[in-house]
Amino acid sequence: MNKNQLEILEKKFDKQKSYIQQLESQINLKTSEIVDIKSLLEKAHLEMKKFDNDLDHILNFILILEDKIKHQKNGISGLQDYIQNVILTEDKNMLFGVGVDRKFIKNKSISTIKYYLYTFDCFIKESYKLENLKVSQKKDASIIIKTLIDYIKISFKNKNIQIKGIIELSAQDIEEVLSIRFYGNYSIEEEIRNFIALYSQ
């Protein structure tokens, strides 16, 4: 093989090498685009799933509310009376959900929370003083209420009953005796009594 032939082969090799590098660059670019598209699709899927869940919640809320209005002779006035009679503090830090998500309480208006309680037949109103469960500061009160809610949820789970409601912690005399008000679909009198007996020992 003479020198000219060798040079020709080298040029062809360089040309092929350059072409291969271009192909590799294009493949890497396409791979990156595919990864980005896959990431976007996964994100879109999660957003759609969240939207579907929110939509289902809203539709169920509307259907339950419509059903109550249809099956009550004075459904609308009954709802209005309920909204007026359920007095909840505007301080969301004093409201605790029993079977109600914390984010829902935090993000929704007081009126929406009342509508929610109404749709789940939370017509029971009870007030309690948690005797012998004294606290030294506000954050201790919050811990006690959250522990109480866990106790209530376990108790009703053992009864195979779905409990829904809101516990409102009274801000008055919070460092003396804890006072709470409960709106729910079942009475929690037994749970309160047992909780006090258990945790005041």
Give a count of the beta strands, DSSP E runs of length 2 or more: 4
Helix content: 55-70%
- Estimate what percentage of residues fall within beta strands: 5-15%
Termini separation (Å)?
101 Å
Low-confidence parts, pLDDT < 50 over ≥5 residues?
none
The total tally of domains equals 2
Q: What is the overall pLDDT average?
A: 80
Q: Helix/strand/pairing class, anyone?
A: alpha+beta
| Helix-strand pattern | HHEHHEHEEH
Rg from Cα: 31 Å
Major sheet: arrangement of strands: 1-3-4-2
What is the global morphology?
Answer: elongated
**Sheet with most strands:** 4 strands, antiparallel
Helix tally equals: 6
Give me the secondary-structure topology.
Elements: H1 3-71, H2 75-85, E1 95-98, H3 102-107, H4 110-119, E2 124-130, H5 138-158, E3 165-169, E4 178-184, H6 189-199
Antiparallel strand pairs: 1-3, 2-4, 3-4
Helix pairs in contact: 1-4
Would you give an account of this structure?
This protein has six helices and four strands; from the N terminus they run H-H-E-H-H-E-H-E-E-H. The protein has helices at residues 3-71, 75-85, 102-107, 110-119, 138-158, 189-199, and strands at residues 95-98, 124-130, 165-169, 178-184. The protein starts with a helix and ends with a helix. The mean pLDDT is 80.
Write a short abstract of this structure.
The chain has six helices and four strands, in the order H-H-E-H-H-E-H-E-E-H. It is of the alpha+beta class and 201 residues long.
Descriptive labels:
alpha+beta, 2 domains, 4 strands, four-stranded antiparallel sheet, 6 helices, single chain, 201 residues
